[in-house]
Amino acid sequence: MAAPIAIHLEFGGGAELLFGSVKEHHVTLPNQSEPWDMKQLLVWIRGNMLKERPELFVQGDTVRPGILVLINDADWELMVGVLPECVLCVKD
Amino acid sequence: MCQVDEEYNGQLEHRVTPRVSKKCVKCKENTAVLIIRAGDAFCRGCFKEYFIHKFRAMLGKNRVIFPGEKVLLAVSGGPASSSMLSQVQEGLSRDAPKKLRFVPGIIYIDEGGASGQSMEERERAVAQLESVFRATNYHYHIVHLEQVLSLPSSVLDAGSSATEKPQTGSSYKAAVDQFIQTKKNQHPDLSVENAQSHLSSLSMHEVENGVTSPITPEHTQALQKLFASVRTLTAKEDLLHTLRQHLILHTARTQGYTKVMMGDSCSRLAIKLLSNISLGRGASLATDTGFSDPRYGDVVIVRPMRDYSSKEIAYYNRMFDIPSVFIPGLDTKAQDKASIQHLTESFVTKLQTDFPSTVSTIYRHPPPSCSTLPAGSS
Q1: To the nearest whole number, what is the mean pLDDT of chain B?
Q2: Which chain A residues are Cβ-neighbours of B8 within 8 angstroms?
Q3: Does position A31 have pLDDT exceeding 50, yes or no?
Q4: Where are the domains of chain A?
Q5: What is the pLDDT of residues B170-188, one digit of tens each?
Q6: Confidence of residue B19 (pLDDT cuts 50, 70, 90)
Q7: DSSP E strands: which ranges in chain B?
């Protein structure tokens, strides 16, 4: 729950332009008391990785309409209702 | 459309909310990996089948492409046209049960001169795309937008149809049967499949792959001057579209292609439909966004990707590793209100998130024939 989490992010289809034209990123999310979820991840990305024009990537709580998100190659919409609520945790 | 995806290394799992992981609605066995349309969850295998089937059904239903015809594929490098290219490859391949039967060629138009890219960036993009095209073994043409400035004005004339091709279903079937018979007679020792590859390899060797002569900086400057003289982004995008269309048409005519396949997805066409109404092109909506556009006479433009949403295309490309190259255009990173087209795109996309049937509602409205349009917008 509190350990830092290492994730691998890939951007494509033009989204990489907002991240310095780099498509693949390996990042480590820092410690925090609550488990990470998608909303927090997006906030973190916006604060730490986005190089320019945040409004082209994030809109409110979620990504801008038109941006597709896959989690482990599966549709994000499959896992959540409307709001990002899926919880990330570390497997033993 | 932009795409973000994330993968977690082996140490992670994500726990889903109380919802149980969904099963595919088609086979009901495998876990679903994506949702398309208004809530149908598909697994990987069923999605691939659905995607491939839709392409062939589109061509089969409309019956405008006759066997042995030369068809030019307009590939911009973007996801939809790259997907179209891979579907054509798939359809023409030997092991497809009901093979498509035409001779494809590829055209790529380098628009970097208009969108202000440097020569290195343009060359890099062209090199990436050339490697994709070479892997297909189809004849390809790389044309720079600067060449449109030296086109003869006869490109604007509508040519007459090359031969009388009756469009009824029975004649199409007869044409297909006749084609198979001819192939069998000409090459009694070759099967139909070998004849097809023989035909395409012939066209490869006859003419050099069409990488046209390098352009000079003066050409680029003339093009940039042309675009700079157009004051609004709306008009620039419209001009770019028109010039692109003329170049494709010219290439098709000079190289003997009778059909052109464009990779417009249904999302793209819905946006185009609404923007065209705003631009005053309401009268030609049916031909601008319909499956086939016969206005040029001898060259017919078809849009086989018309029923695919951009989400389906993006997922298919990702899951099955279809190479596509992102090339920044005129409206990349532009403000929402920078042009009518861009504003319409943002409007439709935002509406689509909350109302997933937006796009299909928009583009189903115009009647298939060139008759009057229903009053008002949807």
Answers
A1: 79
A2: 5, 7-8, 71-72, 88
A3: yes
A4: 5-82
A5: 667 777 777 777 766 665 4
A6: very low
A7: 3-8, 12-15, 34-36, 40-42, 69-74, 102-110, 139-144, 210-211, 259-262, 292-293, 300-302
With contact defined as beta carbons under 8 Å apart, do A12 and B5 qualify?
Answer: yes
User: For residue A26, which amino acid is it?
Assistant: H
Is A11 in contact with B4 (Cβ distance < 8 A)?
A: yes
Output the CA–CA distances (angstroms, integers) from residue A60 to A43, B4, B352, in the order listed: 10, 17, 17
Section B106-132 average pLDDT: 90
Question: Quick one: tokens of B294?
Answer: 């016969």
The answer as to CATH 3.30.470.10 being correct for domain A5-82 is: no
Contact B5, A69 (CB under 8 A): yes
- What sign for the dihedral angle of Cα B164, B169, B174, B176? positive
CA-to-CA distance for A24 and A10, rounded, in angstroms? Answer: 5
CB pair distance less than 8 Å for B33 and A73: yes
Three-state DSSP at B342 gives helix
pLDDT in the model for residue A19 = 87
Q: Counting one residue from A and one from B, how many pairs have CB atoms under 8 Å apart?
A: 145
> Among residues B199, B169, B172, B170, which one has the least CA distance to residue B183?
B199
The predicted pLDDT at position B101 comes to: 82
Q: Where does the pLDDT of residue B98 fall: very low under 50, low under 70, confident under 90, or very high at 90 and above?
A: low
